[in-house]
């Protein structure tokens, strides 16, 4: 039997023993913590917290995990190692209606402040009036006044490197599991850090909805709204944890370019401990950033969000947020090995009892969501880089999942091509991955992260090109999609072992010694990657029918050209 329903977020506490309740009381933050924090919430965030509301601040893992279990927020399930057969327990959560972000419900206040002239207004950054934001803010804060417990996390974004001082942020949540998630993903503040808060997220989760959204001119009852001048964001109508993570990343994408620093949706690793050489791997969700930056032999700096400053690169986060669909110890040993006690697994199917009587997660069953996720602290990755910083990267990789079967497995890009492909942010959805998708569907997301860019994309492109030119970084385009045909017409998924060898060749630099063949699109295709058949590297040779390839190539080339014209990078 399979269980897809999790305990409700608000179970009754009747029946809990006095001993357990006493332990909970012992974990409540009292004076020196609770009363000072209560005053701070009232003074800086206009939140009136009831006297009986327990405020929990920067809890340690034992405490937060005990609370989420006692309050019935999470379900403990086993993770079975497909190599050893051993089972270890982990906490799981089902986030309800939303198992991914709700990008159509993201808003910025457009008022009289400087952000009004800086933000790139449009479908991604939709404007709301200060009055609408204040009403949304009040909905969340009124909800907080009715809570018997709140969780407050104070952390930092980034690492101190050169002139950069980490931004100090606060995230207030109604549930312990949300606190757990943020604790996994963000570096906790040092208790001696007395600097003021740079930005606060007030999360109401799905308990707070905006029933008056039509009157407010919004798209739905869900909202993720930012007020840059008030240094505040509010979330309502969704439980999905990634809204908090990407909300903080959005603000880094606002702040950093103003300081001459490039924020980038990319993983980063140290490729050589002696030289300290690093690699940046940029790509949209699901293209392999986490996987390829966690290869054996690399020291992971971070798997998703980084900054490139005049002094090197640094990780914005303190944890990893990996996809779990079809995850196995055989294919992803480092990610799989990180799923243990402090990890938090989201939106996965749990089998009540396997053949050995264990309640275990089935990562192959994605019927709840293709976007099942696991968050875990960075130090759970074997061989990670504890400093969170690295030298200027010598190599930059753009990952794409080309479902048309046209792009080579790997291409070497000129500086001009790097600018084009970065601003294109191209990938494609394969047929049958979403309801109604029967043909490959292109996705263009500038800088491989358009949903998180408050400023015009060219701002980030210009910064990247300046960094690449100044530090002499080589840039590669790696296709993790299809070969031998489109995904709708007999194409096969790129062979993971071949992609691994390609990435190893990039890391080692051996790929730079290869001869190249230039495609009609001007891409330079290396023809010699150790362990990879030359025919595999030349996509046209993998199609059975050259006539079909030629026809598909013309359409693909025109699609890319048309998008570059839209971006103002080419003439019509």
- Separate helix tally: 15
Radius of gyration: 24 Å
Looking at the structure, what is the overall shape? globular
User: In percent, how much strand structure appears in the residues?
Assistant: 15-25%
What percent of the residues sit in helical stretches (DSSP H or I)?
Answer: 25-40%
Mean pLDDT: 90
The CATH fourth-level homologous superfamily of the largest domain: Phosphoenolpyruvate Carboxykinase, domain 1
In terms of structural class, how would the helical and strand content be classed? alpha+beta
CATH architecture of the largest domain: 3-Layer(aba) Sandwich
How many β-strand stretches?
32
N-to-C CA distance: 58 Å
Largest sheet: 9 strands, mixed
Number of domains: 2
Uncertain stretches of 5 or more adjacent residues: 1-32
By CATH reckoning, the class of the largest domain would read: Alpha Beta
Using the coordinates shown, work out and report the CATH topology of the largest domain.
Phosphoenolpyruvate Carboxykinase, domain 1
What does this structure look like?
This protein is α+β, with helices and mostly antiparallel strands. Helices cover 27% and strands 25% of the residues. Strands 2, 5, 6, 7, 8, 9, 10, 11 and 12 form a 9-stranded mixed beta sheet that branches. Strand 29 (482-483) and strand 30 form a beta hairpin. Helix 11 (415-424) packs antiparallel against helix 12 (457-471). Mean pLDDT is 90; it is low at 1-32.
Brief summary of the model shown:
The protein is α+β, with helices and mostly antiparallel strands. The radius of gyration is 24 Å and the shape is globular.
